[in-house]
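Q: I'm teaching a short session on how sequence maps to structure, and I want students to see two examples side by side rather than one. Could you give me a first protein with its sequence written out and its structure tokens following it? Keep the formatting plain so it prints cleanly on a handout.
A: Of course. Example one:
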Amino acid sequence: MSLGEETFALHLRAAGIEGFEREYRFAAPRRWRLDFADPVRMLAVEVEGGTFSGGRHTRGSGFAADCEKYSTAAVMGWRVLRFTTDQVKNGMALQMLRQAIERAA
């Protein structure tokens, strides 16, 4: 797992937020996985790596594949929150996840 994913997992535990599974496969038979997913709330978090280093998510084919994956998730009813590693580290990801959970309640 990436630094961002490991950090977010720690933040979830420290905040006492339950219900999230890591590497959740959401669109069988596709091999797509969501970094963190709560299937009951249909809420997911993706931690995007390599955003400033030319990683897969920012290059043409990787970006296009992500568009298909996230659009499919949306059509299926998932709310997908996407964050960079820096946004995880500075607490923004956890703060926004809390807001999403509150709105769903």
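Q: Perfect. Now a second example for contrast.
A: Example two:
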Amino acid sequence: MDLGLRGRKATVCASSQGLGLACARSLAQEGVHVYINGRDIDKLRDVAAELSSQTGQAVVPVCADIDTAAGRQRLIEACPEPDILVNNNAGPPPGRMEDWTPQVWAAAVEANMMAPIFMIQALLPGMRKRRFGRIVNVTSAMVKSPRPEMALSCAARTGLTAFAKAVSLDAARDNVTINQLLPERIDSPRQEFMVARLMASDGLSREEARARITASVAAKRFGTLREFGDACAFLCSEQASFISGQNLQIDGGSSPGLF
């Protein structure tokens, strides 16, 4: 299927590895000129060169900390008129409510709620004027299925979800869609962190820890980065122009709810 994206431009936040890189790779494979982002310029350059070699597309590395106003401005100046914005950022680690100080809360809200909101505020008006835009926010399955140890993450990400839904209702008339991808148990660096945490807490081997985690997944396996990235690319496609304000769970069918 041709997704109708060849020649489009995409800004993909936090995309030097993991879920962000998966989105960038799938978009580049569809002929999109991708601007990738991270904090390590050497790593970014290596990733950009690899993606460009693999896909034959222009891939531009932009070293910037999107948790800061200066970093976001640097990313926006590098690609001021993207057709696609993928908001992504590292989430806070699991923890306990009694350990979450005001400073910890502020950092979580800045990274997982305000940073993507500010990117949307900056880039949505241009998309609407050009009458094409695709915004995909990478959030978490915890938005729909909150858990005590992940309350810090899901609280911030749920705020972003509410904002995005509200804005999507007005943007749709100008062919701009805003959707969320809700990953769970994708085989990524984040998942490796969770595996290591389980190994340390329960004295398990890596294989045992991975097996315990996949046992909780309906599909009985981890999701692949390719599966996640391709879902992102589809939401950015011409074919998905009538899909907006939605939360798509990429979780191997594990969610017990209807919605």
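Q: What should students look for in example two?
A: Point them to this: The chain has a mean pLDDT of 96. Also worth mentioning: Residues 1 and 239 are 10 Å apart (CA to CA).
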